[in-house]
Structures are given as structure tokens and as C-alpha cells.
Amino acid sequence: MEHSIGTWAILLVAAFLGGGLNAIAGGGSFFTFPALVYAGVPAIAANASGTLALLPGYFASTWGYREDIKPPATLTMTALVVISLGGGAVGAALLLTTPDELFRTLVPWLLLVATLLFAFGPWLLRTFTRTASSGEAGALMQGCTLAAVSVYGGYFNGGLGIVLLAAFSLLGHSNINSMQGLKNLVSSVLTAIAVSVYAFGGAILWKEALVMMLAATAGGYVMARVGRRLPPSLVRAVVIVTGSIMTVLFFRG
């Protein structure tokens, strides 16, 4: 697919901003997905290609938060990785079986749910008592929650970080930097397996994805180091505003 210099510039800027937003708050596909759609890429290919473009940014931002990464209370790091891999593979396989027009219809609803989950995460945490917070019951609840989010991430990368942060908040995490590091790690794992499935299914536009990778990686690492020093309230505001704007734009078509 051929693009003008202006279109390539939009794709590169979107990738840099997407990698940076993923590092500090999640929702990087709010930039890469619409940019690729604007460039004329079909919705499913845009999701798959944008996901690949952001993958190095996830790795870079995970390294940027390396001092803060801690697993959930009742899950080992091994269990975390295995669940993320399995869920990401299932979600990616589901995407490849979804018709493009149906996926375009689902996109704004997926963005809306992701944004609302993050916006109301603290309220949900205060409102609902966590009855399975420790022991085997706690491990089962956290494992099922992570599996569901991983399937979502493998299916639609948009807002993945938002959903993960909301899930970790509901599971009892309160330190924003720890949540960010864990979110970036899980995103890296499930996105890597999802991209492998996308590639096998022929859904990736390699030229666009590989060029955007460079900008996303730079954005991910730079903003990971900067984001560790930002006030948590500002980080939350960035997520909610970005998610809200993109949701409205996609509903308007």
C-alpha cells in the first residue's frame, strides 16, 4: 500500500505518541489504530499492524519500569506469563475469524467499555468487597480476571493498558508505578503471542508496522522514564481524556 509523505508523518507521530501513552497510561492504539484507518488500511489489518508496531514499545516501557514490577499477591510471575500467553492467543484467533465490517462496528463499543472501566476503577474498588483476595480463591479470581483481559488484548489492542490498569486496581494494587510496570509486562507477553497469530493469519501490513515500530519504541522508553515522575492524577486524566475523545470520534464514524 502506497502512502504520501504526509501520511507517513502521521503514522510515525501516532506511533511515537502511542508508544509513549502505553508506557504511562495505556491506550496507545487510540493513536495508531485511527492513523492506520485514516491511511486507508482495513480495520482488522489496522488493529493487527498497529499492535505489531507497538510491541517494541511495550518491551521498552517494561524495561523503563523494571524497578517497580511486582506480581499480584496470589499469582506467581510464571502463572502470570502463562495466562497472558494463552489469553492473547485465543483473542488473536477470534479476531482473525471476525468479518471486517463487524469489527468496525464493535470498535467504538470496545473503546467505550475500556475507558469507563478505567475511569470508574477507583469507585468500583471502594464499592465492591473483594471476597477472594487471598489463598486459592484469590488466585482463581486473579487468574480468571487476567485471562479475560488477555483475551480482550489479543482481540483488540485498543485500550488494553486501560483495561489492565482497571483490572489490577480491582485486584488490590494501589501503587501506580507498580501497576504500570506489571501492565507493561503483561501487555508485552500477550501482544507478542497475538502478533504471532496475526502474522500466521496474514493480517499484518509489514511495511507500515515495521516503520512505525521505530517511533513507538522511542516513545515507549522516553515516556516510561518521564512517566515514573508524573503525578498519578495526571496519568489518570491523560487516559480518560484520550479514551473519551477517541470513543466519540469512532462513534461518529
Automatic annotation (TrEMBL):
It is found in: Cell membrane. It comes from the Bacteria. Coiled coil: none annotated. Pfam families: TauE. The chain crosses the membrane at residues 35-60, 72-94, 106-125, 146-173, 185-206, 233-251. Keywords: Cell membrane, Membrane, Transmembrane, Transmembrane helix, Transport. One of its GO terms (cellular component) is plasma membrane. Belongs to the 4-toluene sulfonate uptake permease (TSUP) (TC 2.A.102) family. This is Probable membrane transporter protein. It comes from Stutzerimonas stutzeri KOS6.
